[in-house]
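User: Please fill in residues for this 186-position structure.
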């Protein structure tokens, strides 16, 4: 779970909703302890977000722009997405790191401008941990609540979870294949 949550925050294909939601199903079945899963998943989230924070804190804005411009297709983002996140961070301050942990796309991207803005590491880690803790707890709780329905329809649920993962990966691959910089869009 730690590695899945770290990877989910570094690479976009598999959303945390599926990972931690399924973890909640495993908690309901007695295979995981809620608190342990919550801690491990949240630490994985923090580790994954730290990678982006570290890049922002160590690289210059020009180097980050070159990286994003070169690998934008694989990130399915471009420099304008980053600058928009940076403006939100500058306007709202450190608390935006906590609040955006509840946003599907911005929860990862905000780590980059936080590092570039030289947000104190301990504050970044604290706000990331707390926001992720709340989000992951809600996902685990939701998975627990759905566990009964999933168990009743386990065969179908397995196909649904597999289908959701396939759709998420397929959506990412579609975005990579069809991605064009804004300057090339009609």
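Assistant: Residues filled in for all 186 positions:
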């Amino acid at each position: 779970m730690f590695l899945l949550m770290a990877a989910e925050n570094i690479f976009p294909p598999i959303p945390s909703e599926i990972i931690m939601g399924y973890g909640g199903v495993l908690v309901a079945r007695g295979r995981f302890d809620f608190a342990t899963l919550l801690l491990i998943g949240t630490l994985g989230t923090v580790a994954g977000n730290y990678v982006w924070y570290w890049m922002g804190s160590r690289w210059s804005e020009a180097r980050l722009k070159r990286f994003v411009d070169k690998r934008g297709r694989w990130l399915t983002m471009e420099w304008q997405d980053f600058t928009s996140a940076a403006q939100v961070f500058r306007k709202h301050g450190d608390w935006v790191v906590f609040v955006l942990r509840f946003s599907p796309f911005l929860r990862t991207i905000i780590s980059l401008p936080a590092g570039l803005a030289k947000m104190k590491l301990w504050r970044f880690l604290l706000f990331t941990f707390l926001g992720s803790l709340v989000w992951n707890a809600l996902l685990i709780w939701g998975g627990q609540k759905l566990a009964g329905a999933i168990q009743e329809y386990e065969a179908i649920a397995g196909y649904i979870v597999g289908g959701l993962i396939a759709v998420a990966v397929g959506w990412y691959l579609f975005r990579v294949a069809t991605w064009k910089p804004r300057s090339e869009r009609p």
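For context: The first helix runs from residue 2 to 10.
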